[in-house]
């Protein structure tokens, strides 16, 4: 077999081959997830396409849903960190726009909706989604809003945890409920509504 | 057979027996839905329990999901109308508390979550849920907020459609996402956050 790896073999020695196998599995699962949706991510299909045994998948992933989620996390975890410019309004707009772009992208949107849909009848998948996706995102959002409140850009009496549901949660609702458009204008309107109420008495 | 109906037979003549059959089917489906969840509402089970043929069910309902939704609508449609006291804050609190009580009730909460979960992979069910449940609720909510804006209780610049997602949508998010508690305190906190921002500049 040809060897294309330019790195010295010595460096590769400490790296267990299982890391490479896992990488290949996750990439394969991500492709299936994006192309066909969560219901098509089966151990059979991913094992065949990735050229690994089904036993390997059973060993590492509790269920096809867990595998799909791990593949999703691997691809999208980098979008979870909030910006921090010092201006809560700029940060909110940037972060919510990015979030909405993610949720409304023709491939990732249905994928996230599908995972959350499956989670309604799979409590373990629900907990996995929380641990890898929705909880880290919430923590980032809380951090962003806390900073704004500390800087006096948001009223001191505001409940930051609840405000997360009124901004990010509203986006999830538009994703998962049958009516309502989820687009950049909606992201901006969420922030505008918050500003409108804050500035109402000053007008 | 014994006849318990106190109404004259003449009056009953114009009423097709199919109405009674339909009623029995919906009541049976509602019981299965409440006791076992949406995945257990099958044509087989409901036909057997209601003492009707499966053909009857196929004739009237597109899918078991549609049947479950019709049963749900039949039981819960009366909770969709918003109050209208003239005070937007009182109305919001009352209506959101009632909504949250519905969504967090141990039997109806998982039922609604299950229907919305199934809808993620069933676009026709999604449209049916919208037509019978989420859209009428949204319309009632918009009406309530519009009235408050007209009375000057909400800023004139507020986007009422988006505000619905920031109040009711936030509750759906808490129902469907794995973290976050959905209780009366949350309903009150949603309203309190809105008031906090409105009164922030006046403080």
Automatic annotation (TrEMBL), chains A, B:
The HTH tetR-type domain is annotated at 19-79
Q: What species does this protein belong to?
A: Amycolatopsis ultiminotia
Entry coiled-coil feature ranges:
none
Keyword line = DNA-binding, Transcription, Transcription regulation
KW Transcription (keyword) present: yes
Q: Which residues bind DNA?
A: 42-61
Looking up Pfam families in the UniProt record yields: TetR_C_11, TetR_N
Q: What is the official name of this protein in its record?
A: TetR/AcrR family transcriptional regulator
* rRNA processing recorded as keyword: no
What is the top-level taxon of the source organism? Bacteria
Q: Which SUPFAM superfamilies match?
A: Homeodomain-like, Tetracyclin repressor-like, C-terminal domain
């Amino acid at each position: 077999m040809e060897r294309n790896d330019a790195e010295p073999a010595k460096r590769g020695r400490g790296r267990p081959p299982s890391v490479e196998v896992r990488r290949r599995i996750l990439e394969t699962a991500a492709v299936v997830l994006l192309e066909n949706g969560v219901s098509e991510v089966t151990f059979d299909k991913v094992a065949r396409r990735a050229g690994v045994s089904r036993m390997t998948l059973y060993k590492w992933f509790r269920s096809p849903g867990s595998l799909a989620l791990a593949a999703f996390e691997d691809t999208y975890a980098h979008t979870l960190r909030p910006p921090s410019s010092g201006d809560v309004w700029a940060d909110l707009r940037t972060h919510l726009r990015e979030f909405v772009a993610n949720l409304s992208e023709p491939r990732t949107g249905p994928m996230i909706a599908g995972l959350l849909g499956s989670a309604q009848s799979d409590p373990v998948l629900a907990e996995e989604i929380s641990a890898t996706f929705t909880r880290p995102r919430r923590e980032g959002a809380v951090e962003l809003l806390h900073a704004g409140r500390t800087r006096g850009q948001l009223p001191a009496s505001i409940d930051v945890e609840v405000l997360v549901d009124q901004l990010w949660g509203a986006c999830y609702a538009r994703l998962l409920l049958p009516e309502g458009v989820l687009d950049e204008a909606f992201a901006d309107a969420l922030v505008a509504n918050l500003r409108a109420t804050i500035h109402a008495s000053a007008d």
